[in-house]
């Protein structure tokens, strides 16, 4: 379980619809969400590796995920190597995810960026984030 900053449970249809609404903005599999500046070469021979520059929509989305409690505290690193292995790599597996799975997928993608530069870009390149957004929309619109 995780601490949520939103009063609605993760599986609440209204909460899923709010997440799914991002699919219109970030659901395009062909869109690029990060750019990479060139590596800087310093006169002393040192190299300065660039950090990605996030598309403003992606930056806004990441903030929204934190603000609305979609980024949950759990051992996402261990989960990625066990139960979540398929979910974070295969958009087809995401199509079977539930609300808590979507929170874990998004948490793993966003939090892993802090430890592995380009992790979010990779999740988009694989189509996992887009699949999570479309799945949230589907779950949010499903009859109760």
What does this structure look like?
The chain is mainly alpha-helical and 144 residues long. 49% of the residues lie in helices and 6% in strands. The chain is built from eight helices and four strands, in the order ααββββαααααα. The chain has helices at 13-20, 23-26, 56-67, 76-81, 91-94, 99-112, 119-126, 128-141, and strands at residues 34-35, 40-41, 47-48, 53-54. The strands form two sheets. The chain has a two-stranded antiparallel sheet. α1 packs across α8 and α6 runs antiparallel to α8 (128-141). It is elongated, with a radius of gyration of 16 Å.
What is the topological layout?
Blueprint lengths: L12 H8 L2 H4 L7 E2 L4 E2 L5 E2 L4 E2 L1 H12 L8 H6 L9 H4 L4 H14 L6 H8 L1 H14 L3
Antiparallel strand pairs: 1-4, 2-3
Tell me briefly what this model is:
By secondary structure, the protein is mainly α.
The average pLDDT score comes to 89
The helix tally amounts to: 8
What spatial form do the alpha-carbon principal axes imply?
Answer: elongated
Biggest pleated sheet: 2 strands, antiparallel
- What is the CA-atom radius of gyration, in angstroms? 16 Å
- In whole angstroms, the N-to-C terminal distance is 23 Å
Structural class: mainly alpha
Key descriptive features of the protein:
49% helix; 144 residues; two-stranded antiparallel ribbon; mainly alpha; two-stranded antiparallel sheet; single chain; 8 helices
């Amino acid at each position: 379980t995780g601490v949520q900053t939103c009063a609605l449970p993760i599986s609440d249809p209204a909460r899923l619809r709010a997440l799914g609404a991002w699919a219109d903005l970030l659901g395009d599999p062909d869109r690029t969400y990060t750019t990479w500046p060139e590596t800087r070469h310093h006169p002393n021979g040192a190299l300065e590796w660039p950090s990605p520059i996030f598309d403003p929509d992606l930056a806004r989305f990441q903030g929204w995920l934190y603000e609305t409690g979609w980024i949950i505290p759990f051992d996402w690193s261990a989960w990625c190597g066990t139960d979540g292995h398929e979910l974070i790599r295969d958009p087809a597996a995401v199509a079977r995810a539930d609300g808590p799975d979507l929170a874990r997928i998004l948490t793993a993608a966003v939090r892993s960026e802090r430890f592995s530069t380009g992790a979010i870009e990779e999740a988009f390149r694989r189509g996992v984030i887009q699949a999570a957004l479309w799945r949230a929309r589907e779950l949010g619109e499903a009859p109760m």
